[in-house]
Amino acid sequence: MPDALFAHPRLAAVYDVFDGDRADLPAYVRIADELAARRVLDIGCGTGCLAVLLAETGRTVIGVDPAEASLDLARAKDPRVEWRHGDATTLPPLDADLAVMTGNVAQVFLTDEDWAATLRGIRTALRPGGHLVFETRRPDYRAWETWNAPPRTREVPGIGEVEERFEVTEVRLPLVSFRVTYTFLADGSVVPSDSTLRFRGQDEVAASLREQGYRVLDVRQAPDRPDREFVFLARAE
Ligand SMILES: C[S@@+](CC[C@H](N)C(=O)[O-])C[C@H]1O[C@@H](n2cnc3c(N)ncnc32)[C@H](O)[C@@H]1O
After folding, report:
1. Which protein residue has the closest C-alpha to ligand 1 atom 15?
2. Whose CA is nearest to atom 8 of ligand 1?
3. Which of 8, 71, 147, 183 could covalently link to 163 via disulfide, CB atoms 3.0 to 4.6 Å apart?
4. 70 CA from centroid of ligand 1 (Å)
5. What is the pLDDT of residue 162?
6. How far is the CA of 65 from the centre of ligand 1 (A)?
């Protein structure tokens, strides 16, 4: 079950506004250029920001996500993308040149089994020699220590002012749990969402990729978040 943050219709509807300008995404379009990828699979596509950017470049794009409410928003943005409800374990062979996971989707897989099953599912969807590119937060940056920030309020078109409060609820490494609470100021309703993310180190991620039949080609920086993320570039062998 995806978190309410993505699956609750009222929260999915405010995601893009709180997520800001998405300075993280152009780097992934550049990687798709670099790899000459024409057929791209966006796993955990959410509200579809990257999938839409990729479709605008003329690529064939498939976006998959288990959160129907986020997918509904994505569908309304761009009919050129093939939007699929599900996750990587439900994918058939898709002959994709490239699979991507942005927005730290890789951290939602809490157990080794779920992560391994996801990597296997992605490999099924890729063509032989296809690439997998994804980011995951570096544990040594300890991002969660910055998450207890003061509440933020944003004006969401069609919805009005919404306040977001962030609270780290448990740090039990490699797992970090947090609650995000949204207050819709127009009607006073309050909707919380609880999440847990797993922080994996570079060697652990590299080993998990090798175990599932990928070759790690590179581990890069996210240009908009230097020293905070590992960006893995792997190839299905
Ligand atoms: C932080 S959002 C990132 C969304 C999008 N990739 C982006 O960059 O805007 C995390 C996404 O992972 C999705 N997700 C949760 N569990 C998943 C799973 N098992 N497989 C694939 N995606 C999943 C959520 O529904 C959500 O859309």
Report:
1. 2
2. 103
3. 183
4. 9
5. 98
6. 6
CB 173 within 8 A of CB 145: no
The architecture CATH gives domain 4-138+200-236: 3-Layer(aba) Sandwich (3.40)
Longest dimension (CA), the chain: 53
Q: Is the CB of 66 under 6 A from ligand 1?
A: yes
Between the CA of 179 and the centroid of ligand 1 the distance, in Å, is: 17
Q: What is the per-residue pLDDT for 152?
A: 96
Q: What is the mean pLDDT of the chain?
A: 97
Domain boundaries, the chain: 4-138+200-236, 141-197
Matching residue, tokens 């920086």: 221
* Regions of the chain where pLDDT drops below 50: none
Identify which of 3, 5, 6, 61 to mutate to test ligand 1's pocket (most ligand atoms within 8 A of the CB): 6
Q: What integer pLDDT is reported at residue 149 of this predicted model?
A: 87
Q: What is the DSSP letter of 83?
A: E
Which of 14, 25, 83, 85 has the alpha carbon at shortest distance from 49? 25
Token pair for 158? 């069609």
Residue the block writes with tokens 């943050």: 5
| E strand residue ranges, the chain | 39-43, 60-65, 82-85, 96-101, 126-137, 152-156, 160-172, 175-184, 189-198, 214-220, 229-236
For ligand 1, say whether the CB of 139 is within 6 Å of any of its atoms.
no
Ligand 1 close to Cβ of residue 229 (< 6 A)? no
Q: What is the pLDDT of residue 1?
A: 82
pLDDT for position 133: 98
Q: Is 63 in the pocket of ligand 1 (CB under 6 A)?
A: no
